[in-house]
Structures are given as C-alpha cells and as structure tokens.
Specification:
The chain is α/β, with parallel strands linked by helices and 458 residues long. The chain is 31% helix and 22% strand. It folds into two domains: 2-211 and 400-456, Ribonuclease Z/Hydroxyacylglutathione hydrolase-like (Metallo-beta-lactamase, Chain A, 4-Layer Sandwich), CATH 3.60.15; 216-394, Rossmann fold (3-Layer(aba) Sandwich). It is built from 14 helices and 22 strands. The chain is globular, with a radius of gyration of 22 Å.
C-alpha cells in the first residue's frame, strides 16, 4: 500500500490523497487550492496522477478545498465512481455552480480559460453514488470503507478504510482513517462528531492544531455583544460568512436571540444567494440534524426565519440595503472576504468608525480577511483603497473545525496502538504544534508530510 499526499500537506487547502492498494487506486477528496495567488495558480496545473487510472473517489464533504477540482478530474478522463453522503452530493452541485460563475469572471479578466464549465459540473454529477453513514461499501473483495459523522457541516464524514492483505489463511486487516474536517462539537443543528475505537494509520486535520476555541455559549454572547454595540453606535454590523454551516448557525443563533428578545429589533439582511440556496437544501435533510434542532422544528419553530430577517436574493435587493439607515446587520459571503457581496459592504462601511466587522470563520493566510484581522490600516477592495476604521472583532467558537483539545480527544478515543498519525490540512505552524502534542501526550509516531510525499504503509 502506498499513500500519496497530493494536497493539504502543510497547507489548509487543495486537500487530496491517493491510496494505492493492490491494483486499485482510490482518491480521497479532490480539493481546490485557496489563499494567495501562488496557491490558487496551482489549480491550473496538471494532476500528479493520471485521472483515467483512478478507480474510485471518496468525498468527505462539500467544501471547495475538498471538491473544487472534481469537474477537472472528469474533464481529464476519470471514469470511476464518486462516493459521498446524500447532503454532500446536493451541496457539491450548488457550491461548484456558484464557483464556476466566479471563476468565469476571473478568467475573463485574466484573459484565460476558466478551470471548468457548467456542462462539466453536469457531467460530474452522473458519477456520484450516495452512501449513508455506517453503510459499509465494498470497493473490491479486500477493500471496503465506511462513513462516520464528522460533525463539520451537514453530511460531512470521516472515512474508515479497511484493507485485507496477505494469503487467504493469514490475511490481516489494515485500517486507515481519513479525518476529512472534524467538527467543533457541540454546535447548533449538527449531530456530534463520532469516534472510532481502532485504526492503524490516521490522517488528522490540523487547521486549529495550535489553539483553543471559545465555547458555543461564549460565541453566542460575543454575537449578542457585537449586535448591541453596533446598535448603540448606530452603525452597521457586517458578518462575512461562508454560505455553508456558518451562515445557518448564525441564523439559528439570531433566531434564538430575537425570539427571546435578547437583542433589539433591527433589520438583519441575509445577503448571499448561495447561502439562501444552501439553506433550502438544509431544510430537505432535517433527519441529519441533532435532536435539539429536530425538536424545535417539531414544535413549529422555523429555525432559519424570524422577525426582522430580510432575505436579499437579487442584485437589486442587495443594493437596496444601502438605502436602509443604520443600525443594521448584514450577513454576506464570502467568509474570508475573497469575493461575493460582502466586498461591496466592506468597501462602503469599513472606513466608518461606528461600524463593526465581525469575523466568524477561519481566515487563511493571504486572504483579505486575514490581512484585516492582522491589523492592516488600508486594504484594496474592488480596485479601491479603503481605510480600515471600523471595529474588528473575531469569534473562534463558530468555527466548523475542532480545536487542539477536540482533535487530541478524538485521537485518544482510538484504541492503541496506532502505528502512525499523519497531521494534514493545516498551515505549517498549527500542524507542527499538533504533531508535537501527539508525540508528547500520546506517545505515538506523528509526521507532518510534505507536499507530494509518498509513504509505504505496512
């Protein structure tokens, strides 16, 4: 068995791993590179393997850094099957359709072809086969996998791969676990992260491998404080949010705050066409929600709608937000301020000292959100120089990723001995910090792979 680290090695995007087991080649995730221009240019490079030789793709969840290059895989000759949970399949289409429109605009400005076209997304969808949690799927007589709840976004999963090797009478089973992204349990809406008892090799994510989050309660209190502060200053509270999970969690919390009269009544604009589409998919899969959310729905509470919420789907409606006097709250994509409608609001209100920018998502190195968070006084938005005078606040409790404590606890639940842990899907600093904690606290061999590294598994 050979394992290739094709992405997500000392970076937090481009996640993709190739497992060669016997005569089968299995790709786990096929993500897009995100961040600075150097990283994003890697999306235009060739794959480090022949797509037509891949037998199967297994997708952990539908964030772009795990699915973004799937259409290109089809375009380059992949003919196998793609396995994912039912929500992941539906989200994948929506995410990629939205991304294709953005890529088309960028390609036109840069004078080059986009990464993929709409027809390639349509073609890609024909390769998917839905797999439920705990449905054991056999890929070959000696190879099978199973999805477990990752608690990261709706439908997200980590993978347990079981591979038998050796002669028929002496076959041994090797278990390899691919964490995908692990959730910050407990969180609104989602079921908790599951654990497993046994593994020989584990690939574990490390986005927050060097820090601890606020609690969910503290995150909600920070939102409440930010809302009250913006209202008292008669300013605008801007919340850049990923269209998936963070937006729905925010709506869930704001619903609770509004209905319990813990925040004053002000207009709250949900200004993200993608998030609106994704929320409708959420409403199709209530059976994947946690017990609390399911009970609320049964009681008649629409967890994504409440007094004061205004959904702005069209461009005209979005522009109309400017005509509404402050105080007001605007939730818009994208979460790292790399595109989307939030840029227009930031360009308008970041220079206003009465306004607040509340960052509720991870801000990758090189992104506009990261530069603002790190204290840049002036940034370029939509070809304009914008002074940053608004208050900047951040919350880690809304993160969809487990923190260092959560990651270690998830690993410690696996019955020893684990032969080796590979720390992936994080920038170098948090990845190395988590690897050291694993060695010191668990006494298990851990490694932070390099990009393109290939390892032999026993």
């Amino acid at each position: 068995m050979r394992l290739h680290f094709l992405g997500g090695a000392r970076i937090a995007s481009g996640n993709s791993y190739l497992l060669e087991a016997g005569d089968k080649k299995i790709l786990v995730d096929c993500g897009m590179y995100q961040g600075n221009k150097k990283l994003e240019n890697k999306n235009f490079g060739p794959f480090d393997f022949a797509p037509q030789e891949i037998d199967f793709v297994i997708v952990t969840h539908s964030h772009l850094d795990h699915i973004g290059r799937l259409p290109m895989l089809i375009k380059e000759g992949f003919k196998g099957k793609i396995f994912a949970t039912p929500p992941t399949i539906e989200f994948t289409r929506v995410m990629l359709e939205d991304t294709q429109r953005v890529l088309q605009e960028k390609a036109q400005k840069a004078g080059r072809l986009p990464l993929f076209a709409e027809k390639e997304i349509d073609e890609m969808m024909n390769f998917f086969e839905p797999i439920e949690y705990h449905e054991k799927k056999e890929l070959a007589p000696d190879i099978a996998f199973e999805f477990f709840e990752a608690g990261h976004i709706l439908g997200s999963a980590f993978i347990e791969m079981r591979i038998k090797n050796g002669e028929s009478r002496t076959k041994k089973e090797t278990k390899i676990v691919f964490s995908g992204d692990l959730g910050n349990t407990p969180v609104p809406i989602l079921r908790p992260l599951e654990t497993i008892q046994e593994a020989d090799y584990v690939l574990v994510e490390s986005v927050y491998g060097d820090r601890l989050h606020e609690t969910n309660k503290e995150a909600k209190e920070t939102v409440e404080d930010a809302v009250e502060d913006a209202i008292s200053k008669k300013g605008v509270l801007m919340i850049p949010s990923f269209a998936m999970e963070r937006a729905q969690q925010l709506l869930y919390h704001l619903n609770e705050l509004v209905e319990n009269k813990r925040i004053p009544a002000v207009p709250i604009f949900f200004d993200s066409p993608l998030a609106i589409r994704i929320t409708k998919i959420y409403e199709k899969f209530p059976q994947y929600f946690n017990k609390e959310a399911q009970e609320l729905i049964k009681s008649g509470d629409d967890i994504f709608k409440f007094p004061g919420l205004r959904i702005t789907s069209s461009v005209k409606e979005s522009k109309g937000i400017n005509d509404i006097p402050a105080p007001k709250i605007i939730i818009a994509g994208s979460g790292m301020s790399q595109g989307g409608r939030i840029l227009h609001h930031e360009a308008r209100y970041l220079s206003d000292p009465k306004s607040t920018l509340l960052l509720v998502t991870y801000q990758a190195a090189g992104t506009l959100g990261r530069r603002i968070l790190e204290g840049e006084n002036e940034v370029e938005i939509l070809d304009q120089k914008i002074s940053v005078r608004a208050a900047i606040r951040s919350i880690s409790g809304y993160s969809a990723h487990a923190d260092q404590k959560g990651l270690v606890e998830w690993l410690e639940a696996i019955r020893k001995p684990i032969k080796k842990i590979f720390v992936v899907q994080g920038e170098e600093k948090p990845a190395l910090a988590l690897a050291q904690i694993i060695k010191d606290r668990m006494g298990i061999m851990s490694e932070v792979p390099e990009m393109g590294q290939v390892v032999e598994l026993e």
